[in-house]
Amino acid sequence: MEIVPLSDAVGAEIRGVDLRESLSAKTFDQIEKAFHDFAIVLLRDQDITLEQQKIFALKFGELGSRNRPGTKPNELDEYGEHVMLVTNVRENGKPIGSLPDGEMTFHADTAYFEFPSKATMLYAMELPTWGGNTLFSNCYTAAEHLPENLKRRLDGQKAMQVYEYGTTLKTKERYDRKNFPHYAHPVFREHPASGRSALFVSELMTEEIIGIPKAESDEILQKLFTHQKKSQFVYEHEWRVGDLVMWDNRCTIHARTDFPRDQRRMLRRLTIQDNNPVVEGAVPYAQAAAE
Ligand SMILES: [Fe+2]
Questions:
Q1: Residue 120 CA to ligand 1 centre (angstroms)
Q2: Distance from residue 108's CA to the centre of ligand 1 (Å)
């Protein structure tokens, strides 16, 4: 097995693993270590069934439910409760999956729940000729590179995470908190495996910093969102059919670039549930200053 960094910002490609075959404990340990070290892992040229994808995902923990609260069993499609098809493919004019078209703003999956997903695994099945890239931003290094005065201001604070289902771009001043799940999590989140602090906010889902006056909270959030998009923290993934990417929702955020509506794009998504609550992290140590 070979582990090759994808960029200076975040992520690594794992080469020499075929997910159709059962993995030895040693191989899995190496993959898990790379996942913790690099926050995103890519395995290319995989040709796997849903069952094989599930077997791999289950090694990292329990599968997360894709269900929105209140989903009735008869509303589930043939793929069942754990699988989300991220696709613009339509049948009879209706999208058969979720998040069908276009650009999508930075977010962490299910940050609006008390127990957000630990990881998300996407497997590329059909892709357009251009676009639909996934941008990943490293929330560890983004936290570490914040100005010291901002770190101190955010020390111990919580931010409200809200998401209106179906929303892919932030176009509203305020989300409909009453009718959608929302949860306040620490701004600096400690990763249980690495012990590092990550900046746990995102443009699509973070509405306010609790206990800070609205004007100041808005100003700080705008600064944080701009900061997270800096190229030094971001890796842009250009998908190839057969790519399997797993990212850590505890220390990365992701966004999607635009793509043509009239071309098919289909990825099969599983999430891995986290049973640990989000724990407050220390003010991140300034690695840049120390180096
Ligand atoms: Fe997402």
A1: 8
A2: 6
Q: Does the reported pTM lie above 0.90?
A: yes
How far is 57 from 273, CA to CA, in rounded Å? 10
Superfamily of the domain at 2-283 = Clavaminate synthase-like (3.60.130.10)
Q: Which residue is it, tokens 């940050």? A: 111
CB distance 161 to 176 below 8 Å: no
Q: Quote the DSSP letter at residue 248.
A: E
Please, what are the averages of pLDDT over each run of 10 residues along the chain (291 residues)?
98 98 97 98 97 96 76 55 90 87 95 95 98 98 96 97 88 83 97 97 96 97 98 98 98 98 95 94 71 43
From CA 282, how far away is CA 66, in angstroms rounded?
Answer: 31
Going from the Cα of 254 to the center of ligand 1, the distance in angstroms, rounded, reads 6
Instruction: Using the mean position of ligand 1's atoms as its centre, give its distance from the Cα of residue 149 in Å.
Output: 31
Residue 77 has what pLDDT? Answer: 54
d(CA 265, CA 88): 6
What is the set of active-site residues? 107, 109, 254, 269
Which residues have CB less than 5 Å away from ligand 1 (the ion)? 109
CA of residue 289 to ligand 1 center, whole Å: 32
Tell me what pLDDT residue 201 has.
98
On the 0-12 / 13-18 / 19+ scale of CB atoms within 10 A, 172 is: exposed
Domain edges within the chain: 2-283
